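Could someone model 5'-deoxyadenosine with this protein?
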Amino acid sequence: MAKKLFVRTYGCQMNVYDSARMADVLAPLGYAPADTPEAADMVILNTCHIREKASEKTFSELGRLNLLKQERRAAGADMTIAVAGCVAQAEGSEILARAPYVDIVVGPQSYHQLPELVARVARAGGRALATDFPVEPKFDHLPEDGAAPGPQAFLSVQEGCDKFCTFCVVPYTRGAEYSRPVAAIVAEAERLVRRGAIEITLLGQNVNAFHGEGPDGTSWGLGRLIWRLAEIDGIERLRYTTSHPADLDDALIEAHRDVPQLMPFLHLPVQSGSNRILSAMNRRHTAIDYLNLIDRLRRARPDIALSSDFIVGFPGETEADVAATLDLAERVGFAQAYSFKYSPRPGTPAASMENQVREDEKATRLDRLHEVLERQQLAFNRQSVGRTLDVLVERPGRKPGQLIGRTPYLQAIHFDGPSRLIGRTLAVEVDSAYGISLGGRAALAAEAAA
Ligand code: 5AD
Ligand code: SF4
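Reply:
Sure, complex below.
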């Protein structure tokens, strides 16, 4: 049954943009836009914290929504109330405490988790708070447009983390690792395919620690799960994110070699290239371990594109440590990567370590790393020029007649073509490369057959 979503947006353009992304991310769950909160099954307040009294404004708006919620309940329906944006981020627990009728509090870095949060509230009847520091770079996970339910779908298979990297709040906020049973995942994947998905990205905070119960009662790893999902008719592409190097087992590497649907792309955060820092981070791997893994992956799947997360300015990080990180990046040659300045999270071990690095020093180090990573991304994109790649067409582009899709290597590519190609894969010849995207021409045979 169609459900209705109303998003009220406060503040800057960023919030306007984010509100659209939240609607997109919920569309695959069956939410269509409502014109008024009165008509909505779910209302999201996307709040702004830039001026004073923002939270008081939020609470009075919430009070009004609660009256609507009570009316709907009296009429036998319900209303899910979510608070998003910067007030949610800053005052999440206070909102839950003061406004017991609020179901979901979600911080700006966590919108991609909304489907999971909504599902959890519906399943368990509980409430959900997601206001952590970016547990995953959210743009990895947000659909880029509202053409949903689109060809590209997300499926959460794992939650939580037991790794306790010393900088990270996830193990505290998300708790212990939990893997969904294989049967539930397969059923959800089949539903997604029936609704038009041809690419599925498996999600988890530490997705390759997946150890779900298989139909045979034994514990299945991610590699085996991928084999099973690849058997589903209609799934053309599989991806997964985010992984930990210490959990990348042989079966998963073999899946990269043997499962054609598994795309040649891997986001494998390394965080640092210095063994001293990796150890202080409690990462459970060295720089050499990481490089060896990359070698094995490349032997299994020579064209695999690699992505990563880096943190600069971890407590005690010296110039030599930065050099080691830059060196590791040079050795790998990433197709893309995210880098962050270390940010002390209250309650994590690293936050109380001595030798915190000065902010301006962190910024300089970030610039230096960015420069290397941007150069690598451009080089990676440039070597695609002249090749013909399978592109999953996701949505219309900005210019009329233009389409945007993704290559197997997760590069965005734009090219001209009719909108009926959206939701299909077709061959596109790459003719230009930019910092974060490609341009190309749809191959004529595919166009004629369309
Ligand atoms: N400071 C900076 N970056 C962090 N990340 C996680 N916690 C922190 C923190 N305290 C980064 C890591 C992780 C990504 C999702 O966010 O690089 O892989
Ligand atoms: Fe955080 Fe480390 Fe777990 Fe990733 S593996 S979620 S960085 S504790």
